[in-house]
Amino acid sequence: MSFNLSELNEKIQKESVFVKNVQQEMAKSIVGQDVMIERLIIGLLCNGHILLEGVPGLAKSLTVSSLANVLNATFRRIQFTPDLLPADLIGTLIYNQKTGSFETKKGPIFSNLILADEINRSPAKVQSALLEAMQERQVSIGETTHLLDDPFLVLATQNPIEQEGTYPLPEAQVDRFMLKVIIDYPNKTEELEIMKRMANTVRKPILSPVVTIDELKNARKVVNDIYVDEKIHKYIIDLIFATRTPEEYNLDDLKDLISTGASPRASINLAIASKAKAFIQGRGYVTPEDIRDIIKDIMRHRILLTFEAEAEEVTSEEIIQRIVDTVEVP
What we know:
By secondary structure, the protein is of the alpha/beta class. It folds into two domains: 33-187, P-loop containing nucleotide triphosphate hydrolases (Rossmann fold); 226-326, Magnesium chelatase subunit I, C-Terminal domain (Helicase, Ruva Protein, domain 3), CATH 1.10.8.80. Helix content is 47%, strand content 15%.
């Protein structure tokens, strides 16, 4: 196995070179936010959608559009508002008077990267239309079903403040997002650099494509080849089951704080995301550190808290950290 693993490491290091190229090119327009950029790359590699949460002005939209430029992919930004209709998203049938027939007018969802800005500002029908497309990767307009582009990645944003007039996503729908990433403020050094770059009227830097869609698809296949030991698989299962039956892991005090534990999507996504994390680091095998690094983004939106937890101001991140600190590492 050691020879094969060495061979695999060499292959991964060769195939993952484009990741550093993407990060370096995006650094021309994005200061800091390394974690957000890495999580977006993980989403691309795993074919998984991402929910970004952070206050306005943290470069969420700029980062997504920069990623589309670097990937040479089609990109659409959709501003979700209370008056948005499903047809505005997926498209509709238009009657052509010349031909006397209906023609399909495709909506902005037919793109590689979709930025669903402030997804919680649109009503349930629009959210459902988007989430159905995310799940099925196809859209029905009239009697015809249209396959969406590949890659197809939805990056939705939520504003944690100003909750008036919003329509919070139901828990079952939030579960369809592979990752929920919390975006924080930049540090002083980063904000100083942002201010110097942006406080001018000069044309902003133009990013060049550094990876093709075909290269991305090939990288996805390589990610599947990354080795995951059976002990790592069991470690993932233990972490997930600790959210459902914490008393079995000497976490009795969490039983009254967790209303619903993580779903099977959590274990699936944790396994594939840890592979992508290893790929980004040029490694042909998954380590427990890969799992511990990505677990909060996978699980923070999949653990439902009780009223008691909310009363005590306990967060899902704190619960995840307790589980990670307690469950035995292989």
